Amino acid sequence: MKLSRENPTPTTTKLIIAAELAELEAAKKTTLARLSKNVAVPGFRKGKAPVKMIEKQIDPSVMQAEFIDAVLNQLYVQAIDQEKMRPVAQPEIAVAKFVPFTTLEFTATVETVGDIKLPAYKKIKQPLKNSKVTEADVDGVLKNLALRGAVKEPVERAAKKEDELIIDFTGVDAKTKEVIDGADGKDYPLLLGSNTFIPGFEDELVGAKPAAVKTFDITFPADYGAAALQSRKVTFTVTVKAVNEVKPAKIDDAFAATLGPFKSVSELKVDVKKQLQAERDQEDLRTYDNELLQKVADKTEVAVPTPLVDDEIERMEDEEKRNTAYRGQTWQEHLDAEGLTAEEHKEKQRAGAETRVKAGLVLGEIAQAENITVSPDELEIRIELLRGQYSDPAMQSELDKPENRRDIMSRMLTEKTLETLRGYATSK
């Protein structure tokens, strides 16, 4: 094989390949052997006739097409391996010259991962953050637990903070009076003081009595999640259907016993603090790893291939669609709330997708530089641990699927690589 290479762009590689005669002769024999299995020659059993006689029985166009495919596939794979390329899409193949079975020249143009120039990542330092759980944090959890076991009694008085209101509400644009999708609700339980609604909304309902109807304007925050509502003034009409006085459960030893094997509130607090600290530690570690990886990625030189970014955008879109459906909203309603078309929404994801892809490429390059691998035994141990978390046989069988095993191995490789980075970043 004669091979030359061009790079029209940092992520596009064009291979110019010419087959050697010996390669073509070997490919012809292989192609004939494969096709001969289905060729019948009078006087011979299928596939047992002399090669020259079999060749005469095969449609020349079929023979040449099969032959060309075999040579293209074989030489393209060899060229990729020889050039140590990392394709991220199917190549565009163009046959430049073909003389049946004696000459074949072609080009293969493909998107690839370009050269990755890592920084001196071993010298990048970042101290670990250790968040501590306070007594106020623990008391906050106990308060929420007490609210879950609260007794709610209807009252006829004016509502005050920590009361629950059952409300119907609708929202329209303050100027155009156009109804706003998603700004309405029926029989909605709202705990005053919970700050679960837009700032200012709950304050307007303090003092309201059962059957009251209140109309007021609220301006959405400038950084509100739905772009279409940012800084927008909305007129809400709220009907108070009921006011319930909320009487939280008393936080005592008897209450603690209802939540688990606790003999006292003190034991419950110890357990809550332990769980909170574990959650806080995990969150700190995720934040730390993300920040550290971003530091390394920011200093890394690599051209990110567009197909990888497009694939990541699709994954991000699918995840957001699932979350949207979980909230009971259609995708079109979500797009309308964002004030974006489907294509605009995808394009909005591009910068984040590019960052994710770059981080993944950096992790892969560091894993290779550090010779980090996941052994078959390590993979089996992790799968068995995961299997123990599921009692459903169907879920357990999912762990045996090749694609899921590859995903688990990929996550394990990421974990080990991040652990290595963390070690360098925290060493003195």
Describe this protein with a few key phrases.
elongated, 428 residues, Alpha-Beta Plaits, alpha+beta, 4-stranded antiparallel β-sheet, Trigger factor, domain 2, 48% helix, Chitinase A, domain 3, 5-stranded antiparallel β-sheet
Describe this structure as you would to a colleague.
This protein has 428 residues and is of the alpha+beta class. It is built from 14 helices and nine strands. Strands 5, 6, 7, 8 and 9 form a five-stranded antiparallel beta sheet that branches. A hairpin with a 5-residue loop joins strand 6 (163-173) and strand 7 (179-191). Helix 4 packs across helix 7, helix 7 (265-298) packs across helix 11 and helix 11 (350-369) packs across helix 14.
Class by alpha and beta content? alpha+beta
Number of strands: 9
Number of domains: 3
Give the low-pLDDT segments.
Answer: none
What is the level 1 CATH name of the largest domain?
A: Mainly Alpha
Q: Average pLDDT, to the nearest integer?
A: 91
Distance between the ends = 52 Å
The name of the CATH topology of the largest domain is Trigger factor, domain 2
H and E order:
EEHHHEEHEEEHEEHHHHHHHHH
Per the principal axes of the C-alpha atoms, what is the gross shape?
Answer: elongated
The CATH architecture term of the largest domain is Orthogonal Bundle
Percentage of residues in DSSP E strands: 15-25%
CATH superfamily of the largest domain: Trigger factor, C-terminal domain
Portion of residues within helices: 40-55%
Count of helical stretches: 14
Main beta-sheet strand count, sense and barrel state: 5 strands, antiparallel
Radius of gyration: 33 Å
